Amino acid sequence: MDxxxxxxxxxxxxxxxxxxxHLIPDEDSCIRCExxxxxxxxxxxxxxxxxxxxxxxxxxxxxxxxxxxRIACDKQMLVWxxxxxxxxxxxxxx
Length: 94
Prior knowledge:
two-stranded antiparallel ribbon, 4 helices
């Protein structure tokens, strides 16, 4: 799938983010993690590594709820749960 096609598909989703993240990484484990797989597998670019602060930045409001990050996390130190009722992502049918 090319990037233009991906962007087109992503434009069909609607998000209603909660005020609290449903993605909670263990900060100590993230610092020790060499792979940082979550950054590379997330199709919505939810995760970014801040080298200066040695911290994982989580933009949970962009999450597609696919679970790829939970599977890819080598240390399994990411608490991942579905957003609270009425929050999160809605996919259009079509």
